[in-house]
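User: I'm putting together notes for a lab meeting next week and I want to include a structural view of one of the chains we've been expressing. I don't have a solved structure, so I'd like a prediction I can at least talk through. The sequence is below, exactly as it appears in our construct file.
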Amino acid sequence: MPLHRLPAAGPLVADRNGLLAAATGHVLARALTEVAEEEEPKAAIRAIALEVFDAIDAHPWVGAQLSREPWHPAVGEIFERIGGQLQPLGVPIDAQFDCASALTNYILGVAGQNAANARLLPGGMDRRAWLAALATRWIQDDPQSRPFLRRVAAQLCGHDDRQQFIAGIDFILAGACTKPNA
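Assistant: Thanks for the context. Below is the predicted structure for the 182-residue chain, given as C-alpha cells.
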C-alpha cells in the first residue's frame, strides 16, 4: 500500500504547514519504496527503520514535522509496515499493537532526535570533539556521581548513530520475541 503520493503537477496547499505535510509524505513515501521486500521479518523491520532514519537524517525538517503532526498518514504507513512483520515473527497478537507502537515511536523519535542534534552542532565543529566535550560536562561534578555515565563516557564520542539506532531496534525485537514464562 503506497503512501500518499504527490501528483505530478504538485498539490495545492493552503499554507506552509500544508506544504510541509505534503513534502513529508513525499519524502517518506520515497524512502519506503526503497525498502526491498525482505523474506525475513526482522530484516524487513530493520530495513524500514534504516530507510526512515536515513530519510529524516537527510531531511531533518521531516522529523520536526512529524512531531508537530503525529497523525500524519506517513506515520500510519510506517506503523502498518512494521506491524505487518510482527505476526510472522511470532509476536503474540495481544502484544502486536504495543510492539508496533514501541518500534514506530522509537524509529521516529530517535531519527528525529539525531537529525536535530546534527542541525544543532555548532558550525564547523567536529562531532567527535563536541561529544567528548558533552561527556566531560556530564561527568565533571564530583567523582561519586553518575557512575554509569563515567563508565560509558568514552563510548559516547566514538559511537555510530546508525549502529546504535539499529541496536535499539534489535533490543525491542528481542523483547517482543521472548516467550513469557509460563
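A couple of points you could mention at the meeting. Confidence is low (pLDDT under 50) at residues 1-9. Residues 141 and 150 are 11 Å apart (CA to CA).

User: Perfect, that's what I needed.
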